[in-house]
Design a protein that fits this description.
Elements lengths: L8 H11 L4 E5 L1 H7 L4 E4 H17 L7 E5 L4 H12 L3 E4 L6 H11 L3 E4 L4 H11 L4 E3 L25 E7 L7 E6 H13 L12 E4 L6 H14 L2 E4 L8 H8 L3 E5 L2 H6 L14 E5 L3 H11 L3 E5 L10 E2 L11 E3 L5 E6 L12 E7 L11 E2 L3 H7 L5 E9 L5 E6 L3 E4 L2 E4 H8 L5 E11 L3 E10 L8 H15 L8 E4 L13 H10 L6 E3 L8
Parallel strand pairs: 3-4, 3-5, 5-6, 9-10, 9-11, 11-12, 12-13, 24-25
Antiparallel strand pairs: 1-2, 7-8, 8-18, 13-14, 15-20, 16-17, 17-19, 19-20, 21-22, 23-24, 25-26
Length: 544
Amino acid sequence: MIELKHATVFDAFRDSAQRYARLPFLHIPQETAQAYDVPAGTWTYDETLAEVERLAGIYRRAGYGHGHRAGLLLENRPAFFLHWLALNSLGISTVPINADMRSSELEYLVDHSEICVAVTLPDRTGDLRSAAGKMGRELVIATPETIAELGDAPFRPRHAGTPGVDTECGLLYTSGTTGRPKGCVLPNEYYLLAGEWYNRIGGMCIVRPGEERLITPLPMVHMNAMACSTMAMILAGSCIVPLDRFHPKTWWQSVRESRATIIHYLGVMPPMLMGAEPSPSDREHQVRFGFGAGVDKRLHAPFEARFGFPLLEAWAMTETGMGAVVIANREPRHVGTACFGRPEPEVEVRVVDDAGKDVGADVPGELLVRAAGPNPRRGFFREYLRDPDATAEAWAGGWFHTGDVVTRDAAGYCYFVDRKKSVIRRSGENIAAVEVESVLRQHPLVRQVAVAAAPDPVRGDEVLACVIPAEPIGADRTASAAADITAFCLQHLAYYKAPGYVAFVDSLPLTATQKLQRGELKALARGLPGTPGCVDTRHLKKRH
């Protein structure tokens, strides 16, 4: 069992700052600096610690402390790291806010999370103020430039005692199947165990203290970047290199310029990189391994052969953290088979059918996981905020129900098959079908709607909306009607959640009791793109 050496994330960072003072902690490549309009360059551990302590003093003097929650809408800018560590030092939980969120999403998050302060990009202050006003929430708003004039904390009782391993460190929202995202309460233990696990897993995933430079295009609103990548580097006294996002044309330039030794990837990335013409410079980098999930089985081996390093496939969820992570970090990795490794002794695994009975080798079933030992929830999320029923359901029978369908061979290796839940995974983002449906139903042209995943060769999934129109729509109006429906969705939800296809249909697959048959809808959606009545609206989905 992994023993923790620190009580909080800040304690771990301060310890590394004392041991690795002049080594780099945070590196901002030129391209990312230009995208964010921030200086390029490197923050050393001691420079970072000094700024973190300055910010902590500002929060403390304004009355914020143990038990409060603070929203950060700062993307992957250096300010996110600085404010997160400062907040954590005071026992304040960080709630990362996705910059792609629109009005209804912000209103829900501000209300549900009960944040009392938010630090945001200047052009989003109005959106947050509007969201708080509409929900009747008192919210102090600042930007990194105005933080010195931070308004006093609204009166809310603070927790007694000193922040520790059980103190809430972060509240991360994840899409489920019940419409609104769930808030995963993540204590310091969750983050610390993630970093400790990464530094001890070994095999082909060896982390060298004080030497690594980990580059990631993943957003800090996700557990992978915030809890896995960053914590691994903090505990190793090494450097995190956050990008604003994945740019396939300049990816290798950023990798080389940053001298990255580890990359974190999503399944959407290898196809784009393999799509470029082979070059003599393909192996001109210092990368030792990639850590990620979802690489196309057909591209796994060709990618490694071309670029000269292994892509180590792993499995985890926001809810499980590293309490039940599985990774193919040792041979045989079964490259090209969707294998994500064999569980370590610290992780217990079951694969069950719909009745909850264990299935045999190589038979698909739902993956159930828990931590071995006396505390099966060690390293997992604490709970879904304000949703005890959903928490209990997820842990039914003492096992966490992942909603992922896998197979397990006779030797114990696990292979990803599909997602059991009605969640669409587009370019690494989990999208709840029912959340998109709830918005689309508000459009006057929509009488009934159901949303499912359509295959996309680049993004994995694309959002497809099957719409029964409220009035007849002739062939000459389908394109404009689909565009209007998509534009409406873009006003209320993040761009990636909007339909990339709108298919006008006469009926939806329903049961005898008029319940939507998600399985049949999923099969239907796969064949709709390219057919009459199905309009491609992907060109309308653009980041703001």
